[in-house]
Write a structure and sequence with these properties.
By secondary structure, the protein is of the alpha/beta class. The chain has 12 helices and 27 strands. The chain folds into 5 domains: 31 residues, no CATH class; 166 residues, Alpha-Beta Horseshoe (Leucine-rich repeat, LRR (right-handed beta-alpha superhelix)); 102 residues, Immunoglobulin-like, CATH 2.60.40.10; 30 residues; 97 residues, no CATH class. 20% of the residues lie in helices and 17% in strands.
Length: 529
């Protein structure tokens, strides 16, 4: 080691010439590990800032020693066949986007993406994946968008999306799925915030209608260009989505094969379905009451075999699998039954059944149930405030008025400044804005309906003689102002008081300064009467 150090520091000659001391020092620090090594840009790749692109390089294996500072890595348009656990030699803690599209990947090993824990965007489109095995996406808890478009995926094993708790958008279109991946929504360790699911251009023929009625309330599910089997349940779902203006159906309405004459072919037009406008129904009950709510527009008795779905505020029920012993169930005739209503049962309920027609814009198959003391208007369908709520509002208003009056009285009568009778008494020592009438009117006690005068008084020093006349800071001569009580405006004429009159009334300014609000306010209140 001493010989190596001396050589690196240039103390000995290597090859007949001395080494550069600065370069030798850097090499020594790299050798000792004090400076981290940064891998150079691999051949056939382009490195720009934090982006590494090895796209279209005909790579069958990943280059060794990729720089770990990358936030985007593009490996598309190559001939990669598998993603193994050791596909990279070090962790990519800054990597956010990984593009593996347009390769020949047919295998992804379990936990292959643990080296990229902060990945947000993963593109595996246009590969040769056929099965999504369990735990292949382990470690991608922060992943938000996953693209699997254009593969040959025909099977998704349970737990395939485990650990993808942050996933929001999933694209599995143009694959070979024949079963709806319901585990995406039912797996407790799977995506909890999934708001976009694209299953278009697959081979789905049967859909879980009851589950779709629930999950489609908070997620957009695209199912166009699938060979869907047109039964009455599917027709009820499509009619319901059209009535709710569900964008995944409305935007691609022409690409759903189960449309048009399929309603008559499936024999879903029952005589019990009334062809008349539907209106919102309202029910008000007390906690513990039993309640039966018939499906709007469905007359009784109904034809045998008709399936009626009810979308409740918390779940979805149907008339074929409901448990009659449950608190909330759907009877065979489509009636929703509450066996002892609870406060949390309040909300909007929707009856979904194949009617053989599109809903008009004014139709509403909603039923509003209110459990409690408030009343519901049968004409408008809006809940009105009950007597208890009216009493609360009146009591609150009365209490506010009483408190306001008390505060006003305290402000008016609890003045801290008291007038003194002595001629040489001190002033209040603070600037005051006083509202009063003409001084002669105050002196004579007369009440006139002219405008009010605003006097800006200069603060008095504590040790100054109040008898010394002061020069006014601002004169209000020829000022037109609006009365406080909105009784019109008037041009105020200046009334100049002679120095002799001031000497006769030496305490007038002191009186105004000391009175502040209390006496003037009393005079103001008297003028209101």
């Amino acid at each position: 080691m001493p010989a190596l150090v001396s050589q690196l520091l240039g103390k000995t000659k290597v090859g007949g010439r001395c080494c550069n001391p600065a370069a030798a020092t850097m090499q020594l620090l790299l050798y000792l590990g004090f400076i981290p090594r940064v891998a150079p840009c691999p051949p056939h790749c382009l490195c720009a800032s934090d982006i590494i692109s090895c796209s279209g390089s005909n790579l069958s294996t990943l280059p060794f020693g990729l720089p770990s500072y990358a936030s985007r890595l593009d490996l598309s348009h190559n001939v990669l066949r598998a993603v193994r656990v050791d596909w990279i030699s070090q962790s990519f803690h800054r990597l956010i986007t990984l593009v593996l599209s347009w390769n020949t990947i047919s295998q992804i090993e379990m936990a292959a993406f643990t080296a990229t824990p902060h990945l947000l965007y993963l593109d595996l489109s246009s590969n040769q994946l056929r099965v999504l095995n369990s735990s292949i996406f382990t470690g991608l808890k922060e992943l938000k968008e996953l693209l699997l478009i254009g593969n040959h995926i025909a099977q998704i094993k349970p737990g395939a999306f485990t650990d993808l708790s942050g996933l929001q958008r999933l694209y599995i279109s143009a694959n070979s799925l024949t079963t709806f991946p319901l585990g995406l929504f039912e797996d407790p360790r799977g995506p909890r915030n999934l708001t976009f699911l694209d299953l278009s251009y697959n081979r789905l023929s049967k859909l879980p209608i009851q589950s779709l009625l629930s999950v489609s309330r908070h997620a957009g599910i695209y199912l166009q260009e699938n060979p869907l089997l047109c039964d009455c349940a599917l027709i009820a779902l499509l009619e319901y989505w059209l009535w709710k203006q569900y964008h995944p159906l409305v935007d691609f309405q022409g690409e759903y094969q189960c449309r048009g004459s399929a309603v008559q072919e499936a024999n879903c037009t029952y005589p019990g379905l009334l062809d008349k406008p539907l209106h919102t129904q309202n029910y008000q009950v007390q906690p513990g009451d039993w309640l039966r709510v018939p499906c709007p527009g469905l007359s009784l008795p109904v034809q045998q075999g008709l399936i009626v779905f009810w979308v409740t505020p918390s779940t979805t029920l149907n008339s074929s699998t409901s448990d009659p012993r449950a608190h909330l169930s759907v009877l065979p005739n489509g009636t929703l039954e509450f066996q002892g209503t609870l406060m949390e049962d309040s909300g909007i309920y929707e009856c979904v059944v194949a009617r053989g027609r599109n809903h008009d814009s004014g139709d509403s198959a909603e039923v509003r149930v209110k459990v409690g003391n408030s009343s519901i208007s049968a004409t408008t369908g809006l809940a009105r405030r009950g007597g208890g709520e009216h009493f609360n509002i009146a009591f609150t208003t009365l209490a506010s008025c009483v408190i306001s009056i008390i505060l006003v009285l305290l402000y008016l009568y609890l003045t801290p400044c008291q007038c003194r009778k002595s001629r040489g008494s001190r002033g209040c020592g603070a600037r005051a804005i006083i509202l009063c009438s003409d001084p002669r009117e105050v002196e004579s006690g007369q009440r006139r309906a002219n405008g009010k005068r605003v006097a800006f008084l200069e603060p008095q020093a504590e040790d100054s003689d109040i008898s010394v006349p002061k020069t006014p800071v601002m004169t209000l001569d020829h000022v037109s102002t609006e009365g406080i009580l909105k009784n019109g405006s008037r041009t105020l004429k200046s009334d100049h008081t002679s120095n002799s009159s001031r000497r006769k009334e030496p305490s007038f300014v002191t009186l105004l300064s000391c009175l502040r609000v209390y006496p003037v306010s009393r005079y103001w209140l008297r003028s209101l009467s």
